[in-house]
Structure formats: C-alpha cells, structure tokens
Design a protein that fits this description.
The structure is a single chain. With 102 residues, this protein is mostly beta strands. It has a single domain (4-100), classed as SH3 type barrels. Helix content is 15%, strand content 47%. The protein is built from one helix and eight strands, in the order E-E-E-E-E-E-E-E-H. Strands 1, 2, 3, 4, 5, 6, 7 and 8 form an eight-stranded antiparallel beta sheet that branches. Strand 1 (4-11) and strand 2 (18-29) form a beta hairpin. It is globular and about 35 Å long.
Length: 102
Amino acid sequence: MVADIYLAKIYFTDLSDYKIRPVLIYQELGDDCICFQITSQNYKGIKLTNHDLINGKLKKDSFVVVPKNFTLHKSIFTKKLATVKNDKFKEIKDSFCKQLKC
C-alpha cells in the first residue's frame, strides 16, 4: 500500500459527516496508515501529475500536502486510484523529512 493513492472517507472534525478525498499512503502501521492529503487546488506542495503515476490516474494535476499528515484506518479506504512512481515518492519522502528535520 505504501506509495499508493486511495480514495478515503475524510471525516469532518465533529464526525458528523465525511467527504471522499484522495490520499497518498506514506507508511503502513498495522491496520493504520500514515497519509498525505492530495488536492487539486494550487498549493505549495509537491506537484503530482499522471506522468508521476503507474497503474492508474488522477482526474487533474494535483499537489501532495507535506508536511501535514494524518493516520487513517485501512477500513475507510474506498478505492485504489494509482501508485506513485519510485522517484516521485522518494521526492515526497525527502521533502517530508526535510521539513520535519528528521
């Protein structure tokens, strides 16, 4: 699952409802995954295009929001969209670590 893009149920902070949004899986932790948000809105993140993907596609060029991350249980992933190529995933990981100074 690492480097895969899934649609996931992202709940509002009051847990009253959710929206389906794409996320990039950064790391698996048992039944949970550390994820990054993916947005098609112009964002100072890492640009992600269909050229950066294998086995799938995104509807629009998008941005991976780093260093913001969150943990989701695997049960809320609804559909696999694509896999990020190794070189692009390394760029995302390096950016995440650089911003967190790890």
